[in-house]
């Protein structure tokens, strides 16, 4: 639980970096999805997903943890809400894949799993939600999201390298699984 709370705090700390708003989309570019990817890759499915549930609940009740000091139910119900609501699912998916391939993990797998969970899963929820909330055709919302891909791929690579180093130095997932097997 401590690690879940810690990673919720990490995502909040990444919100200190100011959002970059582009004229073609109401959803800002932030560094916080880096934390989502790290939560899943470092903590695994259960605790990574839980950490993002904690984060989303804190934001929903008004904690100004999102980039630019944003928070509250209005943000969750706004155009970027689908992206934020997808964060627990993304961390869970990344964590599941990392756990499944734990003994075969390398940087390429970390990056691939971060791309799948941290980009594809988040975009699926975010684009769909944006389309509904903004009354945009899904294709238009998806086209607008293409601008985020280069930055998100960079975040997936950074998270992959960090997760690999943590796996070598202090593998939290392995320790969690060993404790569960012993119980």
UniProtKB/TrEMBL annotation:
Chief location category: membrane
Gene3D superfamilies given in the database record: 1.10.1760.20
Organism of this sequence: Halalkalibacter nanhaiisediminis
InterPro entries in the cross-refs: BioY
Keywords recorded for this protein, A-Z: Cell membrane, Membrane, Transmembrane, Transmembrane helix, Transport
This protein's record includes keyword Transmembrane helix: yes
One GO MF term: biotin transmembrane transporter activity
Transmembrane domains' residue ranges: 50-67, 73-98, 110-133, 145-166
Name under which the protein is recorded: Biotin transporter
One GO cellular component term noted in the UniProt record for this chain: plasma membrane
Cross-referenced Pfam families: BioY
Protein family membership: Belongs to the BioY family.
Lineage: Bacteria, Bacillati, Bacillota, Bacilli, Bacillales
